[in-house]
Automatic annotation (TrEMBL):
Its EC number is 1.1.1.179. Keywords: Oxidoreductase. The keyword Oxidoreductase applies. Belongs to the Gfo/Idh/MocA family. This is D-xylose 1-dehydrogenase (NADP(+), D-xylono-1,5-lactone-forming). It comes from Somion occarium.
Length: 410
């Protein structure tokens, strides 16, 4: 197949719908999902992936505005909707629902994940898992206590190209890592000025939200935690001096490895006319060569893994190659489940369902992963001289979930 044809097919599958709808499994009953928030991310993040999963049904959505809830349910052909001030809790009280997708701003993730777990639902919570490493720890501890599955939606990690990039590093082909550079930028106007990512009360700050990815890729590729934050500087958003719209930071990792992050979705137009193309790249510089993964955050849209290995004989020249891994079959020497047209969100859903059904997923992210990611984000804010994002004030006792029951019946 021509590559432009498979690209078109993949993008259609990701943003419009899969080539064919799944037939519900006759042996394994579907997991019925409820979505908290009529959020933009919900269609690509869960609703479209669910169409090709034989064990998933999207049952309901809840939105604060009843008209919005109804319109969303109609648009995506969902059976049930809940609207109004108590809509989120009503969805959690729906006994038909077994799993909840928390598609809310980061500052609300703790409260609604805890309430969902208290209602005995498995939880797929969007990134960042919360705005506090301490509260994320509580979320995972509570899920474990309840015997429920919880996963932070760090979708890129489930994609074959990213697994392949890590395989290249781990193979030793590049030698010891010396530094890793990440750059995530987009043109001014990509995010509206009142975007959730720029709103302090609900966990705003571009580093708090989009910083999740570069922090994670540095930790993932080095297989280690930063030992210190060497530098961090930010540009404040005009809305609020505490909210960063851009962040530049360098982190020290064990073995004298330095990781850097440049994050900015407010790149001015060239000559006031031409928007810059979004960049989402990571470059690993190592003893024997280099590897750049282009567009690593959304690798299903497009990616390339550009590898350059020093010539062993002379040490002068370099052997270069480019890999593109849209197929799930060619990584880690084994066949991963998947299709060439799957987005990372579809792989993520596959893993989540496998976990709920008691099967071993191809890829999984642990509690430690989500907690450590936030610990790094917190340290970068501290180094930059910014306060931590406000923790959720939702009162929850990690010992007992009675506090939730008491709150609801009060
Ligand atoms: N994994 C990924 O690739 C992506 C992840 N995300 C993550 O998903 C989450 C949602 O992002 P996105 O869909 O872009 O955001 P949206 O602004 O589209 O949606 C946020 C939802 O939160 C609800 N909400 C509840 N309280 C508030 C409040 N005080 N202010 C604003 N919204 C509120 C709204 O629900 P209601 O309908 O009830 O009004 C709204 O639908 C974030 O955590 C983000 O980081 C986003 C994009 C991609
Ligand atoms: O998580 C995300 O990943 C992709 C981006 O386009 C989006 O804005 C962000 O929230």
């Amino acid at each position: 197949m021509f590559s432009w044809l498979s690209t078109a097919r993949r993008l259609y599958s990701v943003f419009v719908g899969p080539p064919s709808l799944a037939t519900p499994s006759s042996t394994s009953p579907p997991i019925k999902f409820g979505i908290l928030g009529a959020a933009k991310v919900a269609s690509t993040g869960l609703i479209i992936p669910a169409l090709s999963h034989p064990e998933v049904e999207i049952h309901a959505v809840a939105a604060r505005d009843p008209i919005r809830a109804e319109a969303f349910a109609k648009k995506y052909k969902l059976r049930t909707f809940y609207g109004g001030g108590d809509a989120y809790q009503k969805l959690l009280d729906d006994p038909e629902i077994q799993a909840v997708y928390v598609a809310l701003p980061g500052g609300l993730h703790y409260e609604w994940t805890m309430k969902a777990l208290a209602a005995n639902k498995h939880v797929l919570v969007e990134k960042p898992s919360s705005v506090s490493s301490e509260q994320t720890r509580e979320m995972f501890e509570f899920a474990q206590k309840k015997g429920l599955v919880i996963l932070e939606g760090l979708q890129y990690r489930f994609y074959p190209a990213i697994i392949r990039a890590k395989e290249i590093i781990d193979s030793g082909e590049l030698g010891a890592i010396k530094s890793i550079e990440t750059i995530i930028t987009g043109p001014q106007g990509s995010l509206k000025t009142d975007d959730i990512r720029y709103t302090w009360e609900i966990g705003g700050g571009i580093f708090q939200d989009m910083g999740t990815y570069p922090v994670n890729v540095l930790r993932y590729f080095t297989s280690s935690e930063p030992t210190s934050v060497l530098s961090a500087s930010y540009t404040a958003h005009p809305n609020d001096p505490k909210v960063d719209q851009a962040m530049t930071t360098t982190l020290a990792f064990p073995g004298d490895v330095v990781g850097s992050i440049e994050l900015n979705f407010e790149i001015p137009y060239k000559f006031g006319l031409i928007p810059s193309l979004p960049k989402m790249d990571v470059t690993v510089k190592a003893e024997n060569g280099e590897m750049t993964v282009k567009f690593f955050v959304l690798p299903f849209v497009y990616h390339s893994i550009n590898v350059s290995v020093k010539d062993g004989q002379s040490g002068k020249g370099a052997k270069k190659r480019t890999e593109k891994v849209y197929s799930p079959t060619s990584v880690k020497g084994r066949t991963l489940k998947g299709e060439e047209w799957w987005a990372s969100y579809r792989y993520q859903l596959e893993a989540f369902v496998d976990k709920v059904k008691g099967r071993e997923p191809d890829t999984w992210l642990t509690a430690e992963e989500s907690i450590a990611n936030l610990q790094t984000i917190e340290k970068v804010y501290e180094k930059a001289g910014l306060p931590p994002r406000p923790k959720s004030t939702f009162a929850f006792s990690p010992i007992t979930d009675d506090s939730i029951e008491a709150k609801r019946t009060a």
